[in-house]
Amino acid sequence: MVDPVRPPTPDTRRALGGYDPEAGRNQHEANAPTLIPVPSLLRSLLSDHLDPGYAAAARDDAKPRRRLANASWEVLAALAIATVFAFAVGQAQATAPGVRETQQALSASVRSAEQAADAATARRDAVSADLDAERRSRLEGDERGRQLLGDLDTATFAAAATAVRGPGLTVTITDPGVSKDLSDVSKGRVEGSRQVILDRDLQLVVNSLWASDAEAVSVGGVRIGPNVTIRQAGGGILVDNKPIASPYVILAIGPPNAMQDAFERSPGLQRLRLLETSYGVVVTVSAGDVVTIPAGSVRDVNFGKEIGDR
Fold first, then answer.
1. Percent of the chain at pLDDT exceeding 90
2. In the β-sheet with 230-233, what is the strand arrangement from edge to edge?
3. Cα–Cα distance list, 91 to 81, 96, 103, 123 (Å)
4. Rounded CA gap, 118 and 104, in Å?
5. pLDDT, tens digit, 9 for 90 and up, residues 182-230
6. Residues near 18 by Cβ (< 8 Å), separated by ≥ 6?
7. What residues form DSSP beta bridges with 283?
8. What is the pLDDT of residues 10-46, one digit of tens each?
9. How many other C-beta atoms can be found within 10 angstroms of the C-beta atom of residue 1?
10. 159 versus 286: which is more confidently predicted?
11. Comparing C-alpha atoms, which of 252, 226, 224, 251 is closest to residue 238?
């Protein structure tokens, strides 16, 4: 039986062209001396095509080239980054004067609008006072006129259109600023804002004061009436479209002792106590014999819709 021809293995191919560790051993004669194989010059020339010294020299010569290529890429990357930064700095310096001028113009426009609004408010209050004095002088002369004045006073008080003075509560809320561990992500705070108290907190306090039998309420010097809103505007709070800032002073007129007892158990004060414990908000509640709340702005109602069962 003839053995099949096997393809040469890597060791066989190496033995054919160079040094074979088994070459020269006597495998057929028993007790015969074992020859130590020694590679011949021919086999060495056939197997080792490159002198080890040349190979080492080639490797040493390639290393500086690789280092030079890597250094070149690093230099190019650094130059690209420096170019981008230089362009950004130059563009910022070029646009800075225009940005400052625009900011100054906007600030001046806002201050001018605020001054005009304050002047218009003062004129409106003066005209309203003159109108009220004239109306009273004409209607106080007879019984029907006095009854009409009583109805008007009731309506204007319900509309928060008259100033009120009497005993009540003063709630002062001081915002401590930024806290590192604010966890109420649903509040949607503006990044970088130093604000913990938000519009929903003040709304809850005002509703709790109404539920505690308050007769009139103001927030930040603004009377709370039927058409007044408390809402967030970026990093600030607007009451009747007027900005207010910390500390927030909330005044409420009513029986001070009974109102304070009810307010202590209300959700509004519980919310403030939670913010006080968690974020360092400062909350003070004090009763007073004389609390003055200004009149609110009155707007004309052009449309109304009844809500609920008739």
1. 27
2. 230-233, 236-239, 242-244
3. 15, 8, 18, 48
4. 21
5. 444 334 444 455 678 999 999 999 999 999 999 999 999 999 988 889 9
6. 39, 43, 44, 46, 47, 48
7. 173
8. 555 444 444 455 555 555 555 655 555 555 665 666 6
9. 3
10. 286
11. 224
Map out the domains of the chain with their CATH numbers.
Answer: 10-47 (no CATH), 166-179+193-293 (3.30.70.1880)
Residue 84 has pLDDT above 80, yes or no: yes
Residue matched to tokens 């930064």: 85
For residue 192 the two structure tokens come to 């970088």
C-alpha–C-alpha distance, residues 63 and 75, integer Å: 18
Tokens standing for residue 199: 């519009």
* DSSP letter, residue 186: G
Q: Are strands 248-253 and 282-293 parallel, antiparallel or unpaired?
A: unpaired
Residue 215: what pLDDT?
Answer: 92
For tokens 């539920």, the residue is: 211
- Nearest 5°: the CA angle 52, 58, 63 is 130
Amino acid symbol at 236: G
C-alpha pair distances (Å), 307 with each of 226, 304, 310: 15, 10, 9
Q: pTM of the entire structure?
A: 0.57
Residue (of 14, 21, 24) closest to 48 by Cα position: 14
